[in-house]
Amino acid sequence: MNETEQSPQLVPLRFDSAGWQIMCQPEEARISFSHQGRLWLTGATFSLASGNGLIRPQDCGSAEGVLLRSACDCSYTITYAGGKPKTALSLRFRTSPDVPGIFLKMLVHNESASPLIIYGFNIIEALGGMASFWPGYGGTNGAVFDWGFQSLSPAKIRRTGDSYAAGISEYYLQVDPGIKPFMGENQFISSWICGLCSGTEKEKALLGYLYPKDQAGYFLYRHIDRTEDFLARSDAEGLTLAPGGEMTSEELYITLGEQEELLLSEFFSLKGPAAPVTAEVQCNADYPRVGLRARLDAVGSASAPGKDARASARVTRDTEAKAPFFDTVFMDADLTCETAEADASLKEAVFGIKAAGYRPALWWSPFAVYRDSDLLKNKPQWALQSNGKMVPAGAINGRKLAALDATNPEVVAYLSAAAQRISEDWGYQTIMLDRLYLAALIGQRHNERRTRIGTFNDGLTAIRHAVPAAFLIGRGCPFWPTAGLLDAVDIGAEQSGSRRPRNGPPRNHPLFLLLRGRGKSRASEIQPLNNLLLRSPAGGALWKNAMLRQTNLWDRFTPKTAAALAAFGGEVVIFDAPDADPEFETMFAALHAPGQNCAPGPGWMTVTAIRTLTIKSEQRQGLFVLAVNTGSSTEETAINPAKLGLCTEESGIFVFDRFACRDLGITTTDHDILPQQKLAAGDSQLLYLIPDAGMPVIVGDDLPLSAAVAGNYAHHKLRISINGDSEHERITGNVFVSVPAGLALATASQDCVQNANVDGVFKIPVAGILPIDLQLDFHETE
After folding, report:
1. Quick check: helix, strand or coil at residue 659?
2. How confident is the model at residue 466 (pLDDT cuts 50, 70, 90)?
3. If I label 209, which of 178, 295, 630, 774 is the partner at 20 to 30 A Cα–Cα?
4. pTM, whole model, 2 decimals?
5. Contact predicate 234/182, CB 8 Å
């Protein structure tokens, strides 16, 4: 065993050769991490942090005791303590590169005599290598993950207003920042902020934990999420666990070491000592007609009806680790042409997969249909249209695809019925939903008022409601709109960039040369980010370009950070100016040619030293600036966050715009943000800036996703209009307005405003039936 990491916030722990157990007092809430014989520990050391990097030390109890392995089912028990009723435990992993992965499952048992309020338990960082987190609600490569409330709850029903985490998760912090657009004492912080840490001694200083009074402006508070099923409300009471009660999470898979580049998927496979086994399976002749590819990874021979079509799957079978492989069957959205024989074969495959010791899974592209399919021949109006033609949606095996229009009620009903057939009739309780971005393509829809990302949410919601108990895995999808709807999100690398994808561009394609580096072999950790940039939709728009050339920046802009940034949705552009390297001129011109829709957005910068990353979204929640010292020197570099154009060879500012087309005006940077901050090379820091356009501006709302909020300011009056897809819908929530210095609310308007803070952000409660019109009157102060 390696020595335990020492720091002022870490309590030294004693290890023995058998394993370990961490005991604390007095709260007696027990968390059991059970790997069921599949826990990999070689070269790993663990340490328990008392609030380090998560909450202030005074908010968390200290750990004491000795680490021992329990004899029951190879589980490891941690009891944690806190001096306050709301506390948190952070567990830090220090690993070596040869640790392939860890399977964990959380069980919380309340052994006290009084109810225990659960706000979430957080696994903080994988410091030694890459990490992929696959719990009940998705994950990110290397990013921090939090088990939220719903993943701890035995019930899998998503309840509006529950304070739980999904997709990209959120942490509970008991702090009172200076910049509070979302108000409330109890806030949740997005986990990706902790993911920006480098895991060094500067971690706490980087996020402001060493200076509680200066925490304002350093944290992004995710009180608002505009996805109606997924609201981490500041007034949530948590989840009460009765005395003697238990909660169990989904199984968590963390890969901690060097990634195996040739795995089919990180989610389905685990690097192990056993040699690969290739199984070939005979498939029914009708299968290619519906895009079916069976993967029955049983050892030995396996058979299915038919002799004219064959499909083989290369898999890795690890007999020692017994990794929970998923055997999958793939198909597009068209289930109408399934014959009785194919239907029976699909059901039979479930029994064969279970007999082999695996979970049956169906790989389904719900929004993708072959253009020449019987489904679209009978229902051409179901496809997304553009100028009277079907919108191009890619191709599989040379057959062109179309995208289903999820604003069409008939399509929604069809998706629901298809999901129920897959799960209930055929018996596939695990479903991999692929090409989900097709629902958000640009085109003419049945309901022209519905936004693309709203359409995406509608289609996915229909599938989730049809199969509430199924384990849904999303691929090719944005993060936030899937929150509360998916159990996992796969953004991992399916194959190395060193191999040419089938039906894909050759390795000498200009874009591949830019991504991999001409004549150089890129590290495997870049592949997951390439998948994000090249395949994932962001707020309904595909990533347009990903030009990765500068080593100094890219070495520090790891997939851990990039995956977290991608969680915001919107359109992402990583751009290197043409004048930085003549080789970019041709590619830049091609990507920004008419019709490519790559125009720069608000906050967009063109610099020669670093890339510009702009994230746009329909969710209006503020302006976020990430300051990154990209220099290779170990010396600290001073940056000035007030100068958004400051981008030198050693440092830069990334601007995240979540106002979409809203005019940002002038950004105020003098509220609780020091003129200069010092960052070591490779470190980063998050700043939250309130827009100051010289007049009141709507900076956010926590209304349902379908609600459209607009504001118009004239003659000292701010008129707020709230509309939705359907009239007479009752909604409740809040709208947040930033008021610049020199203006004050008139007496008549003060009754409808709550909790104005020192930075001039006002919370306006909204309750009523759509459409809703509000008016705030202002006057100038002396």
Report:
1. coil
2. very high
3. 630
4. 0.33
5. yes
